[in-house]
Fold:
Amino acid sequence: MALLVVEDLHKRYGKEEVLRGVSFTLERGETKVIIGPSGTGKSTLLRCINRLTEPDRGRIWLNGEEITSRRTNIYKIRAQIGFVFQDFNLFTHLTALDNVRLGLIRVKRMPRREATERAMRELARVGLADKANAYPAQLSGGQQQRVSIARALAMDPKLILFDEPTSALDPELIGEVLQVMIELAEAGMTMLVVTHEMGFARSVADEIIFMEKGVIVEQGPPEVLFTNPKVPRTAEFLRKITEFYGESS
Amino acid sequence: MELIFKWEWLPQLGRGLLLTVELTAACISIGAVLGLLIAIARLYARGPIYWLASAYVQFFRGTPLLVQLFMVHFGLAGWGIRLTPLLSGIIAMGLNTAAYQAEYFRGAIQAVKRGQTMAALSLGMTRGQTIQHVIVPQALRLVLPAWSNELVYMLKYTSIVYLIGLPDLMGIGRTIASNNFRFFEIYAVVALIYLALVLIITFGLRLVEAAIRVPGLGTARQ
Structure:
């Protein structure tokens, strides 16, 4: 069975149906990239997967355990799913080190010393060991996002969800974050990434999901989607977004 | 008319001052704990707990402090609950400042960005852990400037407890003044002592603010 199974997910905000029956699977070690116009429910979809947003209908399994079941301990599930936010959401009052080890100490009940060692390892992994004692406001956007990736990694997640991780960054800071993500994908981390970075999608993704208006329009390997999409709308979207963002990034 | 102040009055005023400080410290502490709980109840609870917390704030902010003090001290006595003046003072003013502090805390908690909660929950923290380790530590830093005002108000408001017979700074001052018919001098000295206390508190809290300051988490004064 796939690591993550999403089946017929629906979510409505008032009159607007943001997700209208989304189904897909994610295998262990796989990187899938979700692309699509703004307001198509991509972020909502990610938030439904760890139930930061409650879906109205549909089921989700992680590693065979149904997340959407009322009996599931959602806190335990969330601890296994890393989440990287568009605007980082580092804890403002804590240093980089404390940001990374808070979950280890409070959720995993790890002894302080062990948690510190683990947190320092993750900070080193994203190249920020020397910023351990800096507060978020003292870090650049790219550094903050790398700390937030370290925070997710420290929890030993089964998969990490990335919600437009580079969209809030100045262009010259995007590369350092993408580099960390590329290394993660190469190291075999399971990742589900919402992004407009077509270069990343094309070179790193095992599969690309194109979403629009709450449904998956088309999904497949990047070489197929980029060169020979089955649905005309996919081709149109890819052409427009590539013109706008460029491909090299 | 000459001004007369006898140095022998100072030790008596000192005893009153001590009581004023103790009373203020007790009230503000009770109010801080209770106020924080009420703020959390008003923000996170639903149903009866929410309504109760809201009614509490409305009642204590909507009625005069003196009426509340008399209700506790003289009113409860009518029901057979006789409290010492000190206890009545602490309870009435502690409950009163709790309502005001609750509103300060509520504002500060609401000022903590929603993404902070999302990030904490996404790590697997419970709502309680999120409030305890993420929301409250930030809210307390944000609330400090406004909260300082409440402490200063409280210090000055304690001067009404002489009306239930407590020998606080105001109470002692009043006794000395009436015994010696030196109202202006005594009340002027009493006022200066209050002023000195307010200045000390204000300065002390600025030191605290500086000590717990975190870059990017505004405790900036206007």
Observations:
- Chain A has a mean pLDDT of 94.
- The two ends of chain A are 34 Å apart (CA to CA).
- The interface with chain B takes residues 50, 52, 75-83, 85, 87, 89-93, 102-103, 106-107, 135-138, 148, 151, 155 of chain A (CB under 8 Å).
- Strands of chain A lie at 4-13, 16-26, 31-35, 57-62, 65-66, 81-84, 159-163, 191-194, 207-212, 215-220.
